[in-house]
Design a protein that fits this description.
Layout lengths: L2 H8 L17 E2 L9 E4 L7 H5 L4 E4 L4 H6 L3 E4 L3 H9 L17 E2 L4 E2 L4 E2 L4 E2 L4 E2 L4 E2 L4 E2 L4 E2 L4 E2 L4 E2 L4 E2 L4 E2 L4 E5 L3 E4 L2 E4 L5 E4 L4 E2 L4 E4 L4 E4 L4 E2 L4 E2 L4 E2 L4 E2 L4 E2 L4 E2 L4 E2 L4 E2 L4 E2 L4 E2 L4 E2 L8 E3 L4 E2 H12 L1 H11 L2
Parallel strand pairs: 1-2, 2-3, 3-4, 5-8, 6-9, 7-10, 8-11, 9-12, 10-13, 11-14, 12-15, 13-16, 14-17, 15-20, 16-21, 17-22, 20-23, 21-24, 22-25, 23-26, 24-27, 25-28, 26-29, 27-30, 28-31, 29-32, 30-33, 31-34, 33-35
Antiparallel strand pairs: 18-19, 35-36
């Protein structure tokens, strides 16, 4: 489509553009360093300004400060303070995720007591157990297993080979990716003189509306009560959320992060890759734990923590600078002791 059509579809956020001079035909979207003619790409910020000179894209979404550089190269542009956000919306104009047509595959096994809403797709060899309630426009792909008494909200997508354990409740517009396990037994064992006594996990797991869970992640149910993930929170691949955890709204949890039982995250919390959180820890609204942080004490709202054990990020940076000098400091102290 013409760039002008893209601008119209993106609305007011794309009104600041170069269409008075250039209106190229756009056939697709591409990363800026691999873009070809007739593609649309984006540049995140001024530190990537050199990419304007090198890219072959016919149009760019970029910060206002870079519009002149694009114009000098004859590249059409759309200026916005949030290039990545606008580019994400532009991708949707060219790409639609795979969505099978509404039907139930003949090899699917569906208990007679299950309630299935309108326009639901159920793929090959899926298993839907007794008492399950499925909303409308739900997509259940091949080999999905849904245990008894599960509830699944409207428009939720379950990708192939994920498993939803008994009594779990999934809200509307959730996405569960392949290999993820929702509501399996938490790691509950009580030590006795003769060994470990297994504590039955009678609770449930609840995902509120808009939650997305990545491939091979696990969200466990507790012995009593519930494990809950708040509205619109996004969970990456290979994440472990232990029994009884309470995750707030709009949280982002990156790959290989893990939290023990009873952890509480406020709203808008960000956990970077491989963050580990000890049992019962609370992390306040808007806090951030950087990659590989080991969190053993509560984190106040808005704090950024780093390191193992996690400490305030600015303190961690100072400590890291000193750590690199430890051999030098050791030699100096050794000489002073002579």
């Amino acid at each position: 489509m013409k760039l002008s059509e893209i601008v119209d579809k993106l609305g007011d956020a794309a009104n600041n553009n170069s269409l008075a001079d250039m209106n190229p035909e756009i056939t697709g979207v591409a990363p800026v360093d691999a873009a070809a003619p007739n593609t649309l790409s984006f540049i995140e910020g001024a530190k990537f300004a050199s990419q304007v000179v090198r890219t072959a894209a016919s149009a760019l979404i970029l910060p206002p400060k870079l519009t002149q550089a694009a114009a000098d190269r004859g590249i059409a542009w759309i200026a916005t303070p949030s290039p990545r956000l606008l580019f994400a919306r532009a991708i949707a104009l060219f790409y639609q995720p795979f969505r099978p047509q509404d039907k139930i595959h003949p090899t699917a096994v569906i208990d007679s007591s299950a309630r299935v809403g309108e326009n639901v797709y159920i793929g090959a060899h899926a298993v839907i157990s007794s008492g399950v309630k499925i909303g409308k426009d739900v997509c259940i792909n091949a080999n999905v297993v849904i245990y008894p008494e599960v509830e699944i909200g409207d428009r939720t997508i379950l990708h192939a080979n994920c498993t939803i354990h008994e009594r779990s409740r999934l809200g509307a517009d959730c996405v569960i990716h392949s290999g993820a396990v929702i509501g399996a037994e938490g790691f509950g064992f009580v030590p006795t003189e003769s060994g470990w006594l297994k504590m039955d996990q009678s609770g449930c797991t609840v995902l509120e509306d808009g939650v997305e869970v990545g491939c091979n992640s696990a969200i466990d149910r507790p012995a009593v009560g519930e494990t809950r993930v708040g509205r619109n929170s996004k969970i990456d691949n290979l994440v472990q959320i232990g029994h009884g955890c309470q995750i707030g709204e709009n949280c982002a949890i990156a790959g290989q992060a893990a939290m023990a039982g009873g952890v509480k995250l406020g709203n808008n919390v960000t956990l970077a890759g491989q963050v580990g959180i000890a049992n019962g820890i609370s992390i306040g609204d808007g806090a951030i734990a950087s990659a590989k942080a080991g969190v053993y004490s509560d984190v106040p709202p808005g704090e950024i923590v780093s390191g193992y054990p996690a400490i305030p990020h600015k303190t961690h940076l100072k400590a890291s600078a000193i750590h690199k000098r430890l051999p030098e400091i050791y030699q100096m102290l050794k000489r002073l002791g002579q």
